[in-house]
From TrEMBL, chain A:
Pfam families: PCNA_C, PCNA_N. Residues 1-124 form the Proliferating cell nuclear antigen PCNA N-terminal domain. One of its GO terms (molecular function) is DNA binding. This is DNA sliding clamp PCNA. Signal peptide: none annotated. Residues 127-253 form the Proliferating cell nuclear antigen PCNA C-terminal domain. GO terms for cellular component: PCNA complex. It comes from Micromonas commoda (strain RCC299 / NOUM17 / CCMP2709). Keywords: DNA replication, DNA-binding, Nucleus. GO terms for biological process: leading strand elongation; mismatch repair; regulation of DNA replication; translesion synthesis. It is found in: Nucleus.
UniProtKB/TrEMBL annotation, chain B:
GO terms for biological process: DNA synthesis involved in DNA repair; DNA-templated DNA replication. It comes from Micromonas commoda (strain RCC299 / NOUM17 / CCMP2709). One of its GO terms (molecular function) is DNA-directed DNA polymerase activity. This is DNA polymerase delta subunit 4. PANTHER family: DNA POLYMERASE DELTA SUBUNIT 4. Pfam families: DNA_pol_delta_4. GO terms for cellular component: delta DNA polymerase complex. Residues 1-35 are annotated as: Disordered.
Amino acid sequence: MFEARLVQGSLLKKVLESIKDLVTDANFDCSNNGFALQAMDSSHVSLVALLLRSDGFEHYRCDRNMTMGMNLSNMSKMLKCAGNEDIITMKADDTGDVVTFMFESPDQDKISDFELKLMDIDSEHLGIPDTEYAATVKMPSSEFMRICRDLSSIGDTVTISVSKDGVKFSTTGDIGQANITCRQNTSVDKEEQTIIELQEPVTLTFALRYLNSFTKATPLAPTVQLQMSKELPVVVQYLIADMGYVRYYLAPKIEDDETAEAA
Amino acid sequence: MGSEKITSHFKGSKSGRRSSTGKGKAKAVARVEDDDENTEEAKYLSILKTFDMTTKYGPALGLTRMERWERAEKLNLDPPADVYKILTEHDEDGKFTECVWERMV
């Protein structure tokens, strides 16, 4: 038996919006710890990891570990039927082949339930090693989204260079090139801050298409955290308050002259 | 310049596709199971141990787990069905049939 009740139902809707563009089918892992997902996009270049901790739910019960395979666009179709103020409850039997989403309106005068068929999904679970990253950048998530969007109108890839003064996003395309630098900024308002923690300067290049998909998680968190180390995938993390996180991993582009320069 | 795969950085292992045994209806819901026989056994033993520790099914010492399960069933205490299943599947092995304290006391 799996049961999870989330008073702030819009959160689940936002979570799904943040992953459904990247992944079509995915296995959700339900355990005592919480509701989790790890999935790669179809090209196996990026990875998304989601965790909603059990203590973040108003009610959570999971008698035994369960894997629920769902088609995310179908799941999203159902969750779109929930109002933003609705309370969402997910339910599944240990032996059943469906998951039930129940939506209660805040004044309890409307209750809807939607049953989604589960599916068998072959998936690969990747072990992500704990790494000390050379550079960590925290910045407003809306700013990051804006930068990715702006740069993708110029070029296909972005080179992110982190130094102690700031973080530079640059791209080159047919029409020209663009550079955006964000300086370290410790303003009073925490959500406006740009903070750089640096062991050593890092420069990596990524496909903007994926970063743009990652920014679908912007409504989940006011700040985004980028973690980078030379030749390792970047970690783009959005913390969901009191609940968990959505993390994206993106492998860097292999650029022969770039790596020669760096070496 | 090419895109490197994320799998060249993080090592993968298959998961999720394993269907639970038995009931055909359960096909779509795959249990998280490990390929390793030993961890499977450890999981079963842990379920049985939890059963032993559940005081509501009555004293555990001096009778087999199956006897205790049947007594609980007779008294309508609703003992877990998976315990019964594990016990019937492993009715030869002392590790499974006897409660955890049997050899310590």
